[in-house]
Design goal:
GO terms for molecular function: ATP binding; ATP hydrolysis activity. The chain is of the alpha/beta class. Helices cover about 30% and strands about 25% of the residues. It contains ten helices and twelve strands. The strands form three sheets. A six-stranded mixed β-sheet has the order 6-7-8-3-9-10, with helices on both faces. Strands 2-1-4-5 form a four-stranded antiparallel β-sheet. Strands 11-12 form a two-stranded antiparallel ribbon. Bound molecules: adenosine-5'-triphosphate.
Length: about 280
């Protein structure tokens, strides 16, 4: 931050002891429930996110994964229960303060007309200085670094609505990286990425996690979750039905029963692969 930048926050600091061993404030869910159209989509979900990060949330389509992330971010209010960030109820924190703590990459996104790649990535700096302030030299450095990390420098002046799905996904990931938050909340971040970008982005997330950042993401592929996550939350019909290390939650007995399909897992080095034991080749 330069001397000319406005102060980052008028909010009081988070209380001592409310941070992770790195720099990230802890994030906890206490008995979260949410209803949509009269139907329960989150049912008494409780957990505390701490040093075991990245965290991967797995579950069938419609299990409530996106709903859980949205409630964690404060984008939706739960019918009951509390989200705490750094020990304080999310409802006590201003929107800019939440945006300085947590970056979000949503699952479905329309490509907005009228914005270049650079402009969208620069939106990640708004929580640090406001919508109407010119970018500071520090902001520009963060945007350039994020463009570089997501190999977007050559596309910087392209209108976003001319990008492919995977290119635009990288723009949104770059915006979250430029936001420089202690917590990253990612809804299926790998879905549209090619293999090379998947590998590079997951390596980046692992490096951020090692620095003490908290990463929570939804993911559908158990092999990718096994390789990259240190903790797995398994959701079924709005409930958390398993919470633990990948070695335990992502074993073939648990997952086979969960998905209702025959499954065998095979460990090779640090990786775990899944096959269908009944498949005839
Ligand atoms: N606007 C809405 N109105 C009514 N029901 C909704 C609405 N949005 C989501 N739902 C329902 O809430 C439930 C949870 O949806 P959610 O998007 O959280 O699931 P998900 O686990 O993220 O699924 P997916 O893996 O398909 O992304 C689903 O049954 C869905 O149909």
């Amino acid at each position: 931050m330069t001397a000319s930048d406005p102060p980052l926050s008028r909010d009081p600091p988070l209380p001592d002891g409310a941070s992770l061993p790195g720099s990230a404030p802890g994030l906890s869910a206490e008995a979260l429930s949410l209803f949509r159209s009269g139907r329960a989509v989150l049912r008494a979900c409780s957990f505390t996110l701490g040093a075991e990060t990245p965290v991967a949330v797995l579950g069938a389509n419609g299990a409530g994964k996106t709903s859980l992330l949205r409630v964690l971010l404060g984008l939706e209010r739960p019918a009951s229960g509390t989200v705490r960030l750094g020990g304080r109820a999310l409802t006590e924190l201003s929107r800019p303060m939440r945006a300085r703590a947590m970056a979000y990459v949503p699952q479905y996104r329309e490509k907005p007309p009228g914005f270049t790649v650079f402009q969208i990535v620069a939106q990640g700096r708004f929580p640090h200085g406001g919508l109407y302030r010119a970018l500071s030299p520090r902001d520009r450095d963060e945007v350039e670094a994020a463009l570089d990390i997501m190999t977007l420098s050559a596309l910087r002046d392209r209108p976003c609505n001319t990008l492919s799905g995977g290119e635009y996904q990288r723009v949104l990931l770059a915006r979250a990286v430029a936001q420089k938050t202690d917590i990253l909340v990612l809804d299926e971040p790998l879905a549209a990425l090619d293999y090379g970008h998947q590998r590079r982005f997951m390596a980046l997330l692992s490096a951020l996690a090692r620095e003490g950042r908290l990463v929570i993401m939804t993911i559908h592929q158990p092999d990718l979750a096994f390789r990259h996550a240190r903790r797995i939350l398994l959701m079924q019909d709005g409930r958390l039905v398993a919470d633990g290390p990948p070695e335990r939650v992502l074993d073939s007995a648990t997952l086979g029963a969960f998905w209702g399909v025959p499954l065998r897992h095979h460990d090779i080095g640090r990786d775990r692969f899944y096959t269908d034991p009944e498949e005839i080749r």
